[in-house]
Amino acid sequence: MKPPLLLIGQGSHDDNGSAEFGRFVHRLRCRLDRTAADVSGGYLARATPRLSDSIASLVARGHHRMVALPLSLAGDTRIGAEIPAAMALEQQRHPMLTCDYGRPLGADPRVLALLAERLADAAVEVPSLRLVPAGGPAEEEPERIETGETAVVLVGDGSTSPAVNADVHRVSRLFWETHAHEYMTVETAFASLTPPGVPGGIERCRRLGARRVIVVPYLLFSGGLLEKVWAQAMAYAAGHPELDVRCAEAIGDCEGLADVVIERYEEALAAAR
C-alpha cells in the first residue's frame, strides 16, 4: 500500500473555502483509492480539520510515512515556510512518523490551462434581456466587443513580500503568452496588502483603451477572498457604466486540479525511492 497523501492548506475563517477544500480532498480520495492510497487534508491554522488532527487520524489508521503537499499556488511562501515547523512538531508527537514533501502547485501549465477555462467561461457573450413595448420597434443589440478590445486582470492574494508579489506578475506574463495573447493585455492586481488593488488594475486597463475587462482570480477555491475580489470589481464597474466588467470563477474543485496534485504525489514518491 502506498503512503497516504496529506494535503496542507493555509486555512481561513471562511466556511465556503473550507467546504470546497473538503470536497477536493474527497475527490482525490476517490481517485487514489484505485491505487490503494489514503488521502487526508488539514489546515495549519484558523480552520478545521486542523493538520494535527488529520495526522493523528492517519497514524491511528496505521500510517507512519506520508507525503505532505502544500495546496498553494506560485509564490505562496507563507505556507511553505510554516509546513516544516508544523511537521517537526507532529514528529515530536508521533516519533515513528516520517514525511516526504511534494512540490507546491506553482505555475504548472495545467493550472494556467484551468485559468484559461475560467477566462473563456467569463468571456462568453451573454444576450441581454430587454422589455420591448407591444408594437414598438425592437432595440438594437449592443455593438460587439472584440477580444482585442478586452483586457484581463489576474488577481493574486497579495503579500507583504515583494518576491511573492513578483511571482504573481510572472504568472500573469506566462498566462498572457500561453493562453491570452489575443487579448489586449493581462494586468496584475492583488486582493489585499499591496497595490495595485482590483480597482487599480481595472483602471489601468480602461486607460489603455479596453472596452471590456475580465477579472480572473488567481485563487484555488471560492470563499471570502473570492467574494472580496468580485465586490471590488463590481464597485468599480458601478462607477464606470461604459466599461463591461466581468468576473471569472476561482480554479475550484475539479479533475484538472486533481491531475496536478496526483502528479506531484507520484513525483514525491519516486524521489523518495
TrEMBL record:
One of its GO terms (molecular function) is lyase activity. Keywords: Lyase, Metal-binding. SUPFAM superfamilies: Chelatase. Transmembrane segments: none annotated. It comes from the Bacteria. CDD domains: CbiX_SirB_C, CbiX_SirB_N. Gene3D superfamilies: 3.40.50.1400. InterPro entries: CbiX-like, Sirohydro_Cobaltochel/CbiX. Pfam families: CbiX (PF01903). The keyword Mitochondrion does not apply. PANTHER family: SIROHYDROCHLORIN FERROCHELATASE, CHLOROPLASTIC. This is Cobalamin biosynthesis protein CbiX. The lineage of its organism: Bacteria, Bacillati, Actinomycetota, Actinomycetes, Streptosporangiales.
